[in-house]
Design a protein that fits this description.
Blueprint (H helix, E strand, L loop, with lengths): L2 E7 L5 H12 L4 E7 L2 E7 L3 H12 L4 E7 L2 H5 L7 E9 L5 E9 L10 E7 L5 H12 L4 E7 L2 E7 L3 H12 L4 E7 L45
Helix pairs in contact: 1-2, 2-5, 4-5
């Protein structure tokens, strides 16, 4: 099973809130690592339902939790660790079914939270669309959500692009309307295509000026009879 990297943004004003967010995230089955980055929490896991995870976080944290991105975790990113901000270590424990307490050590990254900002997202979901009626219903359901600007079907996937669209609410709505399981595959920021500026090439020709043809002067010899009107025969 492919590991997924799930990034959520939430309000964590103090250490108690941060510890609670970490404890809630690690309680989800399949989670293998949790990390705090500013006002975000990064969860990596095997087979973790990002929609269910976000709903649990919203319920436990008592506030709005925004699902920012869902992407496949690459092996290089799993091994790579960065510690750019000041960090402290904390122990988080929770009981299992055998009433034994498991404790893990997590690293909390401390920073000043940023404000929430709206950006265009690309949301990809997989669902069963056996016939034309199902496909049409999926499209109608997606475009009914406020903020959606484009919807496209790609095989058994539906790609939704929108401004400020809550991917969790969208997926729950799709599951309700389609009456089947809808898998949220990825959530990422929609990147604007950079338009290449066409450079106009200046073509220059050599400056050829008009040169008038050279005028030659010819001397006409004076004839003897032209000097006077007298007779030239003696």
């Amino acid at each position: 099973m492919v590991q997924q990297k799930i990034v959520m943004r939430l309000s964590m004003a103090n250490a108690k809130k941060r510890a609670k967010a970490l404890k809630t995230a690690v309680s989800i089955h399949g989670v293998v690592s949790v990390k705090l980055e500013d006002d975000k929490i990064v969860v990596v896991g095997d087979g973790v339902d990002s929609v269910n995870l976000t709903n649990v976080m919203r319920k436990k944290m008592g506030g709005y939790v925004e699902l920012l991105s869902v992407a496949e975790e690459k092996e290089e990113e799993v091994k790579k660790t960065t510690e750019e901000n000041t960090s402290v270590e904390a122990s988080v424990g929770w009981p299992n079914h055998n009433h034994q307490t498991h404790t893990i050590r997590v690293r909390i990254f401390l920073s000043i939270p940023h404000y929430f900002k709206m950006f265009r997202q690309k949301i990809v979901m997989r669902l069963s669309m056996a016939d034309h009626k199902k496909r049409s219903k999926a499209l109608r359901t997606a475009v009914s959500v406020h903020g959606v600007v484009s919807v496209k079907l790609e095989g058994d996937k539906i790609v939704v692009v929108g401004d400020g669209v809550d991917s969790v609410k969208l997926t729950k709505l799709m599951r309700k309307k389609m009456r089947s399981f809808v898998e949220l595959l990825s959530v990422e920021e929609e990147k604007k295509e950079e338009k290449k500026e066409e450079k106009m090439e200046v073509v220059s020709w050599p400056n050829v000026s008009f040169v008038p043809p050279y005028q030659y002067a010819y001397a006409i010899p004076e004839e003897p009879w032209s000097r006077g009107s007298g007779c030239i025969i003696l």
